[in-house]
Amino acid sequence: MRPRDLAAHGVTRSQLSRLVSEGLVNRQARGIYVAAGHELTASHTLALVAKRVPEAVFCLLTALRFHELTTQSPVEAWIALPEKARRPTLDYPRLRVARFSGEALTEGVEEHLVEGVNIRVYSAAKTVADCFKYRSKVGIDVAVEALRDYSRKHRGGADELAKFARICRVTRVMQPYLDSVA
């Protein structure tokens, strides 16, 4: 939680400071606090970033991992922000920022509840199309692996995949790989 979230429940900053010194609450990152006995999940990093950067949408390798479409385990959290948005500064975790605009930024956003925090992440089909768009950053092998996993998990999802390929302007790039997977 953030101090302002705790203030809404009647916990003052001085009380929060006392809870931290007594070991009942741990400071996770600047402005983020967690109960000492709180069980951390694999998606804890997502909740942490979503609290600090609420306008961010998880994308590329982080979204692939969330949708279980890759064997990659990214060290950084990949987020999408508008082209002119200020880059957030976080102590932990490290962030990789991808700049999106127009429909590529707004389409395909899903909301999920992780550890009581609302996170925004791109859909599986949008994430696969994004991987082909940013293949120079993530690697073509990662994009092809994501496409194969997507086609196995989401039978009949070709229409949605084609829609996002059009939005991301990678239809021609993806076509040979789609033919080989089909």
The total beta strand count reads 7
Main sheet attributes: strand count, strand direction, barrel closure: 3 strands, mixed
SSE arrangement, N to C: HHEEHEHEEHEEHHHHH
What's the overall average pLDDT, rounded? 87
Distance between the termini: 46 Å
Provide the gyration radius in Å: 19 Å
Helix content range of the residues, please? Answer: 40-55%
Order of strands in the sheet with most strands: 3-4-5
The proportion of strand residues reads 15-25%
Overall outline: elongated
Class by alpha and beta content: alpha+beta
Q: CATH topology of the largest domain, which one?
A: Beta Polymerase, domain 2
The number of helices is 10
Give me the CATH architecture of the largest domain, please: 2-Layer Sandwich
What is the name of the CATH class of the largest domain?
A: Alpha Beta
Stretches where pLDDT is under 50 for at least 5 consecutive residues are: none
Integer count of domains: 2
What's a concise summary of this model?
The chain has ten helices and seven strands.
Summarize the helices and strands and which ones pair or pack.
Elements: H1 3-8, H2 13-21, E1 25-29, E2 32-35, H3 44-52, E3 57-58, H4 60-66, E4 77-82, E5 95-100, H5 103-106, E6 109-114, E7 117-122, H6 124-133, H7 135-138, H8 140-153, H9 158-167, H10 171-181
Parallel strand pairs: 4-5
Antiparallel strand pairs: 1-2, 3-4, 6-7
